[in-house]
Design goal:
The chain is built from 34 helices and 17 strands. It has 725 residues and is an alpha/beta fold. It folds into 5 domains: 199 residues, Rossmann fold; 191 residues, P-loop containing nucleotide triphosphate hydrolases (Rossmann fold, 3-Layer(aba) Sandwich); 105 residues, Orthogonal Bundle (Arc Repressor Mutant, subunit A), CATH 1.10.10; 95 residues, HRDC domain (DNA polymerase, domain 1), CATH 1.10.150.80; 100 residues, ATP-dependent DNA helicase RecQ (Arc Repressor Mutant, subunit A, Orthogonal Bundle).
C-alpha cells in the first residue's frame, strides 16, 4: 500500500505540484489499489495526471490507449519534460519507422518505459498483441473513452474491440477516462469494457470561467475577423464541419492579416504536426480545424473557441469549447447557428442504418435545443450531462446577461404533461409538439392522436413553441427523456404531482435565428453606423450617373451597396470592389467619381475610417463563378448548370444575381425566352424599369408575386441588372 506522503512526494518530484486538483488523489489511490476505475472529468480538470502518476509509481508499464497520434506525441513530450530520460514514455503507432519501433520495444522490455501510448488500430495488430503478452503491464488506461460509445460524439469502431484484446494480452486493472459522457454514454462505456463494477469518479461539468454565446449565422466570416482583430495576440480555435470550409476560412483570415493555419484529417501528417506545433509555439494565433483537432491539443491559454458550424452533438460542442481557458483564465465560446446547417447534417445521415440515423437525429435535436433556447446555456449543458445547476443566473452566457421576457407557463406545461400521458409515454418530443400544434400527418392519423382533447389546443401556438415548453419541462425535471429508446418522452413523479397540483412555472420564448430574406439583410450593410450625410451625397451621385446612362438608379448601385460605402468609406478602386454588390466592372465604370467624392468627404470631415470593417475576400478556388459565366456564354440551360455543380435551382439564381450585381454582364435571354412568355416578360420588365423604387427582390415579389412565379421575377431582375452593366 502506498502512503499518502509518498504519493505527494512523487507528485512534487515528477510533476512539480504541491497539491492535487479535485478528485485526482482519490482516483490515483484507487488505481494504485488495483481497482477498475471510471473517470468523468471535464477538459482542464487534470485527467492525464490520474494515470501518469500511478504509472511512474507502479512496477511495469502502463498501456495508454489513445485515439489521436497528435495527442500521443503531445503527452509523450510532456512526460519526457518531467523526467531526465526520454525512454520514460513512448508511443507505438503507424507514424513510426521499423527502427523506431524496435527501440520502443527494447525500452519497454528493459523496464525503462513507464507509459506506452498505443492507438486502438495499432492495438488490434497481431504482432503488437504478441509483443504486449511479454510485457509486465501495470494497468490499461483507455483515454477519450467516449469513442467507445455509438452515442458518443466521436464513435470509433476499433474502440469497441478493446476488452477482447485486453483479455487476449492478459488482464490488468482498467481505467477509462472521458471529458464528455451523458449517463447513457457512461453506461455504454462500462458495459463494453466489462467494468460495470468499476469505482466511479465524477467531477462537475461546470467550467465557471467559460462564457457561452450563440449568434445568428449572418456574415459570420466578417464578424469572426472583427472579433479576432479586437483580440490580437490571443490564441483561438475555430471549428468547421467540412475540410473545404476549414481551408476557405483559414485563407480568408490570412488575407485579412490574421496569423492562421488550417488543420484537418485530409492533410498529410507532417503538415498537420507542423501547423499544430506553430500554434503551440505561438507562431500563429488561430487554428481553423475540423473536429479532428479537438483531442490533439493541450494548450492551456486558448482564449476563444468559435464554432463557425454547429457540431453534430452537445458532447462534441462541450468537448471542443472545453479547449478554451484550461488555465482557469478567460475563455469565450461563440457559436454561429443556422437551422439550414442542421438540415444539411440530417441529409448527410441518409443511407446510414436506420438505428444510426435515429441516434444522429436525437443528438442533432439536442444541439438545436441548446442553440434556440433562451434558458441559461450553462443550465442546459449541465442538465444534458446529468448534473443540476441550481443558480438562477450564471452571469456568463448571453441568455443570462441579456434575458428574454418571461411569462407564466403553467397552463402550457399541464397541456404538455397531459398529452404525454395521453400518448402513453411512447413518443418523442417532436410528435408531442405536432399534436399540440394541431399538425396532421400519417403518424398522428395512424395513432388517432388527432382525436385527443389536446390536439391543436391553442391555434396561435406552433410546433416551435411547444418544443420550447417540452425542453423547459425536461430541465425542470417534470419530464424525462428515455435515450435508450431514441428519446421517448415520459413523466417523472414530479411531473405527475404537477398535473394534480400545478404551481407557477415561468417560461422563456426561444430565440428566432431565422435569416431575413430581404436584400438589405443579405448584404448585411445597414447599421446605426451609417453616415447619413454621405449616403445622401452618394444617392445624388447615383441619380446623376443613372440619368447619364439612361438606366434606373438601382442598376448602377443598389441601396445596400451605398449604405455599406457610407460605413466603410472606400477611397480606392480596390476598396470599392470589396463593397458588397460592387465588382470589378462597376468599380471601373463608375468608381473614379465615387471614390473621389468619398475621399474629399473623409478629408473635409477628418473621418477615421473603420478599417476593421473591411474584410478582404479570397478568390473562390472552386471556379464556380467562372464556370457559370462560361456556361451561360455557351447558352447552357440553367437546370444543367445547377445539376453539374450540385446546386439547387434557387442557389444557382443567387450565384447569378451576385455575379451581375457585381458588374459582370450576363446574357440570359436564351433561357428567359424559353422559360417565360413574351407578354409576361414585358410586364415584369416594365415594372423594373418604370415602377420599381429600390429594385430589390422583396419589393418585386410583394408587387408581382400574386401574378408571377418567383423564378420568373428573379430571371427578369437578373436581365434588367445585366442590361445596366
Amino acid at each position: 500500500m502506498y502512503k499518502d506522503s509518498s504519493i505527494h512526494d512523487y507528485l512534487k518530484r515528477y510533476f512539480g505540484f504541491d497539491t492535487f486538483k479535485g478528485t485526482q488523489e482519490d482516483i490515483i489511490k484507487n488505481i494504485l489499489g488495483g481497482r477498475d476505475t471510471f473517470v468523468l472529468m471535464p477538459t482542464g480538470g487534470g485527467k492525464s495526471l490520474c494515470y501518469q502518476l500511478p504509472a511512474v509509481i507502479m512496477d511495469g508499464t502502463a498501456i495508454v490507449i489513445s485515439p489521436l497520434i497528435a495527442l500521443m506525441k503531445n503527452q509523450v513530450d510532456a512526460m519526457r519534460n518531467f523526467n531526465t530520460t526520454d525512454d520514460v514514455a513512448h508511443f507505438l503507432n503507424s507514424s513510426l519507422t521499423k527502427s523506431a519501433i524496435t527501440k520502443v520495444r527494447q525500452d519497454v522490455l528493459g523496464g525503462k518505459t513507464k507509459l506506452l501510448y498505443v492507438a486502438p488500430e495499432s492495438l488490434t495488430k497481431e504482432e503488437n498483441i504478441e509483443f504486449l503478452k511479454s510485457v509486465n503491464i501495470s494497468f490499461y488506461a483507455v483515454d477519450e473513452a467516449h469513442c467507445i460509445s455509438e452515442w458518443g460524439h466521436d464513435f470509433r469502431p476499433e474502440y469497441r474491440r478493446i476488452r477482447p484484446i485486453i483479455d487476449n494480452i492478459g488482464r490488468s486493472p482498467i481505467i477509462a477516462l472521458t471529458a464528455t459522457a451523458t449517463p447513457k454514454v457512461q453506461h455504454d462505456i462500462q458495459k463494453n469494457l466489462n467494468i460495470l463494477d468499476a469505482d466511479i469518479f465524477k467531477s462537475s461539468f461546470n467550467r465557471a470561467n467559460l462564457y457561452y454565446e450563440v449568434k445568428a449565422k449572418q456574415d459570420a466570416a466578417r464578424e469572426i475577423i472583427k472579433y479576432i482583430k479586437n483580440n490580437l495576440g490571443k490564441s483561438g480555435i475555430i471549428y468547421c464541419l467540412s475540410r473545404k470550409k476549414v481551408e476557405e476560412l483559414a485563407e480568408t483570415l490570412k488575407v485579412n492579416d490574421i496569423k492562421a493555419l488550417a488543420y484537418h484529417a485530409g492533410m498529410d501528417s507532417a503538415t498537420r504536426s507542423a501547423n499544430q506545433d506553430k500554434f503551440l509555439m505561438e507562431e500563429v494565433d488561430v487554428i481553423v480545424a475540423t473536429i479532428a483537432f479537438g483531442m490533439g491539443i493541450d494548450k492551456p491559454d486558448v482564449r476563444y473557441v468559435i464554432h463557425y458550424d454547429m457540431p453534430k452533438s452537445l458532447e462534441g460542442y462541450y468537448q471542443e469549447t472545453g479547449r478554451a481557458g484550461r488555465d482557469g483564465g478567460e475563455g469565450r465560446c461563440i457559436a454561429y447557428y443556422s437551422y439550414d446547417d442542421i438540415v444539411k447534417l440530417e441529409k448527410f445521415m441518409q443511407g446510414k442504418p436506420i438505428a444510426e440515423q435515429e441516434i444522429g437525429k436525437q443528438l442533432l435535436l439536442e444541439t438545436v435545443s441548446y442553440a434556440e433556447s433562451s434558458t441559461c446555456r450553462r443550465k442546459i449543458l449541465l442538465h444534458y450531462f446529468g448534473e443540476e445547476y441550481t443558480q438562477d443566473n450564471c452571469e456568463a452566457c448571453d441568455n443570462c446577461l441579456h434575458p428574454k421576457t418571461q411569462f407564466e407557463g403553467s397552463e402550457y406545461v399541464v397541456n404538455v404533461l397531459e398529452t404525454v400521458l395521453a400518448v402513453k409515454e411512447k413518443h418523442k418530443a417532436d410528435h408531442i409538439a405536432k399534436v399540440l400544434a394541431g399538425v396532421v400527418n400519417s403518424a398522428i392519423k395512424s395513432y388517432k392522436h388527432h382525436k385527443l382533447d389536446t390536439f391543436g389546443i391553442d391555434e396561435e401556438k406552433d410546433e416551435k413553441f411547444w418544443n420550447m415548453v417540452i425542453r423547459q419541462a425536461l430541465i425542470g425535471k417534470l419530464l424525462t427523456k428515455d435515450i435508450e429508446n431514441y428519446g421517448l418522452i415520459g413523466l417523472t413523479q414530479k411531473g405527475r404531482d404537477y398535473i394534480e397540483k400545478p404551481y407557477s412555472f415561468m417560461l422563456n420564448e426561444d430565440h428566432d435565428y431565422t435569416e431575413s430574406e430581404d436584400e438589405e439583410a443579405n448584404f448585411g450593410a445597414r447599421t446605426a453606423a451609417t453616415d447619413e450625410e454621405l449616403l445622401s451625397i452618394l444617392k445624388d451621385l447615383r441619380k446623376k450617373l443613372a440619368k447619364h446612362s439612361g438606366q434606373p438608379p438601382y442598376t448602377i448601385f443598389q441601396d445596400p451597396s451605398l449604405e455599406e460605402m457610407a460605413i466603410q468609406y472606400p477611397v480606392t478602386i480596390e476598396e470599392l470592389q470589396n463593397i458588397t454588390g460592387v465588382g470589378a466592372g462597376k468599380a471601373q465604370r463608375y468608381g473614379n467619381e465615387v471614390v473621389e467624392i468619398i475621399k474629399n468627404y473623409v478629408a473635409d470631415k477628418e473621418i477615421l475610417r473603420p478599417q476593421d470593417m473591411v474584410v478582404k475576400s479570397v478568390v473562390n478556388k472552386s471556379g464556380l463563378k467562372v464556370y457559370i459565366i462560361q456556361s451561360i456564354d455557351r447558352k447552357m440551360p440553367l437546370d444543367d448548370i445547377a445539376e453539374a455543380k450540385g446546386l439547387e435551382p434557387e442557389e444557382l439564381l443567387s450565384e447569378i444575381e451576385a455575379i451581375v450585381s457585381s458588374g459582370t454582364k450576363l446574357n440570359i435571354d436564351y433561357y428567359v425566352n424559353m422559360a417565360i412568355d413574351e407578354d409576361r416578360q414585358n410586364d415584369i420588365y416594365s415594372f423594373f424599369m418604370e415602377e420599381a423604387q429600390t429594385g430589390s427582390l422583396e419589393e418585386a415579389i410583394n408587387e408581382l408575386g400574386g401574378e408571377f412565379e418567383e423564378e420568373e421575377i428573379r430571371l427578369m431582375r437578373i436581365k434588367v441588372l445585366s442590361d445596366g452593366n
